[in-house]
Amino acid sequence: MDIIRLTYPHLNVDLTYPESVVAIGSFDGLHKGHMAVIQAAKDIASEQGRASAVMTFDPHPSVVLNKHKPAKMEHITPLDKKIELLEQMGVDRVFLVTFNKELSSLLPQQFVDQFFIGLNIRHVVAGFDFSYGHMGKGNMDTLPFHARGLLNQTIITKVMNNDEKISSTFIRSLLREGKMEKVASLLGRPYAIKGTVIQGDQRGRTIGFPTANMEVEETYITPPVGVYAVQVKVGDAYYEGMANVGYKPTFYQEEKQLSVEVNLFDFKGNLYGEQLEVLWHRYVRNEIKFNGVEALMDQLKKDERQIRDFFQHN
């Protein structure tokens, strides 16, 4: 899969690339609604004998356009994971466009000329609510006018799940509520985060539940405090396990630093310095302060039995 990074004004001219069918959008989350747009572009490209492409933006437009947003954004699917998923889908080419103030100031006609016609794109596929150009004044209704007969378009209507519109905003709210099974049903896969294993207090080893203490990459949304059924990817292997997001109240009275720890079932080895990917399947319970280590150990054994049973039957 080719990745072409573009910043306005780019120097590419017509016929630089083979004719393509492009799916365009921010695609944060790559949820089922986004997948429908991208799959439609792939199908049309196959029918027309053209390359399939995705055009997306970095950083997310809201970082530039919304003055009340923080300078960084917590993503459902950060850019590196997005690229990985697009490659798995079999997309031929990704146009990665730098979103900045100059790009946001383009007139709709300028955007179409630069980023569609100028890149030899012959068919655009987008969601019904996609907009382009200064203040979003261009949309799928105006595209035929701006295209001047040089490209065609396909509009994908909203994708529903049990009478609910699938959207990144809805998925974010579910993530912050810990509703991981619902999130997975909208993404089409479990929510996943990446992080590096760092030195912890090693207390888990002394009670029979060694954990990997993760430094989670800042671009991810960390699930709320609690215990979860997870899968952990180590290299190319997956292990079932349980994760704890919280402040370890049994051992620390006034802990301020949120930690993410994972206990991998049936794993033996040293994980320090390894990058792990954690797939969040189910919220199990809230974090509890126990009256001593024995009570904590008893609960952890119950958690493990419950989580093993969950994976056995799912």
Protein traits:
314 residues, alpha/beta, Rossmann fold, Elongation Factor Tu (Ef-tu), domain 3, 2 domains
Topology (elements, then pairings):
Elements: E1 2-6, E2 20-24, H1 32-48, E3 51-58, H2 61-65, H3 79-89, E4 93-98, H4 101-104, H5 108-115, E5 121-127, E6 131-132, E7 138-139, H6 143-147, E8 152-156, E9 160-161, E10 164-165, H7 168-176, H8 180-187, E11 191-198, H9 203-206, E12 212-216, E13 226-234, E14 237-246, E15 259-264, E16 275-285, H10 293-312
Structural write-up:
The protein is elongated, with a radius of gyration of 23 Å. Strands 1-4-3-2-5-8 form a six-stranded parallel β-sheet. Strands 11-12-15-14-13-16 form a six-stranded antiparallel barrel. A two-stranded antiparallel ribbon has the order 6-7. The protein folds into two domains: 153 residues, Rossmann fold (3-Layer(aba) Sandwich); 123 residues, Riboflavin kinase-like (Elongation Factor Tu (Ef-tu), domain 3), CATH 2.40.30. Helices cover 29% and strands 30% of the residues. The chain is built from ten helices and 16 strands. With 314 residues, the protein is an alpha/beta fold. The mean pLDDT is 89. Belongs to the ribF family. It catalyses: riboflavin + ATP = FMN + ADP + H(+); FMN + ATP + H(+) = FAD + diphosphate. It comes from Pontibacillus litoralis JSM 072002. Its EC number is 2.7.1.26, 2.7.7.2. Pathway: Cofactor biosynthesis; FMN biosynthesis; FMN from riboflavin (ATP route): step 1/1; Cofactor biosynthesis; FAD biosynthesis; FAD from FMN: step 1/1.
